[in-house]
## 1
Amino acid sequence: MKINHNIQLQDNKLKHFLNIKSLPKSYIIDIINRAEEFHKGGSLPKYLDKVVASLFFEPSTRTKTTFELASKKISSDFINIDIANSSTLKGESILDMIKTIEAMSCQMFVVRHSVPGTAHYIAESVSDKISVINAGDGSNEHPTQAMLDMFTIKKHKGEFENLKVSIVGDILHSRVAKSLIYALNTLETKEINIVGPKKLIPDNYSDMNVNYFSNMNEGIKDSDVIIMLRLQKERMHDALISMDSYYVDYGLSRERLKHANNDVIVMHPGPINRGIEIESSVADGPNSVILNQVSYGISVRMAIMSILFDNN
Ligand code: NCD
């Protein structure tokens, strides 16, 4: 599917929220600032006449739930389309399904699908009253996750220009990693390291303005932020990796964390695999901000949804 990265902006306003690639810095800053207002407990807008439909064709706990909570906090209705029991299983195309839900007067779709570009395709096909948010399209992007990750870094580190950020794990299959790298580059992060076995690193990494390390201790040395990723077994077509050797080479243990700065923050988009990519004592330890990320996700999604409602 050919992905149109430019449809999210119309007349210099965010119409949809689909990708971090091509999203200018000022839009990222606006979202972080608005999310900060909501997080501080500022007054909340009310979108009583708006209806949001969530369409998750892939499993999700935190993303879907925080979208629902975000929608409720800004007083918009939220409907969960039960995909497992939906009429797409009876042969209805995604577009026919979308048109049917559109006829129920929805103003926003939140879409997760395993095929890259699905949210973009839906955004190009719906009427202009509707905004589409990409909640993850295959191994392409996960832009709201990147926004909550930027919010987390801003909150705990204050800025980006002097930071060394290391992203560790399955970069190849991870949409989180792609969106993160775009966002960190747009925000002019000083140094971005990617760390993992060569077979989990995209061939074109040299175009991504990152440094690659196959050695974990070197890759996280003096880091201010470490972002751990899950092995995306569902996207690996062959058994590429042995879990035991992965933990030995790339698991984040307390011992290994000593290579990073003392005040390093450890992040993970979840779901976490304890004992595969991260030791429990690190996931639950003093440097971890993994659960903070989940709660910031609500304010960040409120900010994105409210900006789209205001623009439409
Ligand atoms: C991620 C996802 O689904 O892309 N999780 C999330 O949204 N919090 C990462 C993952 O599945 O590993």
## 2
Amino acid sequence: MRKQIAAANWKMNCSLQDAEKLLTALSQKQFSLKENEQVVIAVPFPYLLMAKQLLNGKPSFFISAQNCHQKDSGAYTGEVSAAMLASCGITHVIIGHSERRQYFNETSDILAQKTDLALQHGLTPIFCCGEDLAVREHNEQNHFVESQIRDGLFHLNTEAFSRVLIAYEPIWAIGTGKTATAAQAQEMHAHIRKIVGDKYGNEVADHTTILYGGSVKGDNANELFSQPDVDGGLVGGASLKADEFEKIIHSLS
Ligand code: PEP
């Protein structure tokens, strides 16, 4: 059975004190997650260890970084490597979020290197893809997302690919309050699963977790997550409120 995941992406939000409050609130909530259900929380670098400690007693909860560098170590002032994250006991890392592609010029080549290093160090990459509004308006989203996945991931062998989570996040839906309809999400997720199947075979495709991201909220998560190829969500804004994220986690079942 493939994993169903509610993943939070805090981006560059929260003071240390706010982060502690939010994590403590989440740690006090009761969830009865099934064996294949998980919660992943991607916090800013300075809060990773605190988050790990505060959620330590929560089974099926994992802490993620939001990025890592494409080199293993060296003179890259201000950067954080996959090796460092692994040495802190962090299990996941977001790679290729559209904000990083857009504002930090992260190319597919760079993202492929980041993915390789994350996997080498035993981290689970959450590989993001998704088209902007202009691409969608020209109805070129399938081809666009396919290229992002091919260029960022299809150099991996089957074993390595099987450890990757994919997040489809249409840029026009991120932080805009404009969610893709459940049908639009399902259509793209089915397309992604098909191209994964063409490359790695149907069994691998069937086991690949594909998250939807883009204005997921407590009141739309149920409908989105109930689509057959939507395996949970990557959630920005709504993950900064404990009660709202709690609702989203409950929508996994
Ligand atoms: C995101 O940052 O990955 C995201 C989907 O943000 P939001 O939920 O705020 O649209």
